[in-house]
Amino acid sequence: MKITVFWTWYVWLVTGTCLAEVWHEVMCIDIDQNKIDNLEKWIIPIYEPGLEELVLRNHKEWRLVFSTDAKKWIAFWKAIFSAVWTPPDENHKADLRFVKAVAQTVWENVSDYKVFINKSTVPVWTGKLCKDIISEEIKKRSAQVKIDIVSNPEFLKEWMAIRDFMGPDRIVCWLESEKAKEIMKEIYKPFIRTDRPLIFTDLKSSEIIKYAANAFLATKISFINEIANFAEIVWANIWDISKWIWLDDRIGHRFLQAGIWYGWSCFPKDVQALIETWKEYNYDFKIIKATEEVNKLQKTKVIDKVLEKIDSLEWKTISIWWLSFKPKTDDIREAPSIDVINKLLELWVKEIKAFDPVAMSHMRKEYNWNNVITFWENYYDVLNESDALIVLTEWDEFRIPNFEKMKSLMNGNVIIDGRNLWRKEEMEKLWFDYSSIWR
What we know:
Layout: E1 2-6, H1 10-21, E2 25-29, H2 33-40, H3 51-60, E3 64-67, H4 70-76, E4 79-82, H5 97-109, E5 114-118, H6 126-141, E6 147-151, H7 161-166, E7 171-175, H8 178-187, H9 189-192, E8 198-200, H10 203-234, H11 238-246, H12 266-276, H13 278-281, H14 286-298, H15 301-309, E9 317-321, H16 336-346, E10 351-355, H17 360-366, E11 373-375, E12 388-391, H18 403-409, E13 414-417, H19 424-429, E14 433-435
Parallel strand pairs: 1-2, 1-4, 2-3, 4-5, 5-6, 7-8, 9-10, 9-12, 10-11, 12-13, 13-14
Antiparallel strand pairs: 6-7
């Protein structure tokens, strides 16, 4: 099938590429000519394991192409995925201006039957909003065009996005007609054939499900972080507590590991957007609001732990290993590293030395105004003359570093492990002053 995907960033580029991988013809549209030019040269705007190889193969075989000419490809393609970003606005509501812009653009140029598929994470009733925009545009043109709206939320995790798309837990759809239903079945036929569930539901349920899923996972992380905070007070071991909890198959181990907070753009954004809906519908999300509050407090716990070891950080050199919100991604949106760096700057440290395998270019842009922060290409180099090391992300490749080399490079011996990478007993044998997350 011929499919257009609006936007070429994270979820959207993965969606278009994976649809091409199962032999659909896909056109990815973006207004940024520089980004499109780079994609034509196989320069990928994001880091996601396996994505570059898939883009290259499908582009070479002409199943995946890129353009800024929306008008041309809207006219030619049958199914149109709107997969634009819905960032939080200044009041933490979902900002729908890109969703509205795509709806406007599509139906200013449509001349025959199309299916408009909303894959963005959007508040309840956004499908109706798109329908109204489209209907108004068609009315203005006095056009006789039939359109169908589909709500088809995405459930992709960064650094596992390709696996999630190619082997989905579920594919959720709301649609308006049998014709649209047959088109969605055709799009997802390769997945249905491998017994992946294609679920049809009502509009409101399809729009709430993504927010509900992310809010639940965020609440699960917040719960174990609160238990971890209490475990620290009473000298209990959060690793053992978590392990015995997750052996209950009703709970499971995923998202039940204590850490510095839940990070990522989607969890904070979606939790906040869901909370804000109570103002419109007069329902107060008490548990979800508490989830947000717990994680705000959790962000800078590692700084408290450093201050327990070093009375004052003024004119000290602090090293940070890893800046992205989680491993195998270059995404720093809502990453705890930003809050940690800002807090260190407030404490007048002499220097912050930082390393990340893939996210440093984004962080350089974030702090190009500040010469206290330096970025290093080797994770040992950042330790030179350092008074303390803060570990913020759990890249598997770095779980077994050369501890003797680390000791020889550092001025101090303080390590704050925000991801519980190492065992306290072993670190203390190496004469590190080591703190992990409440074990």
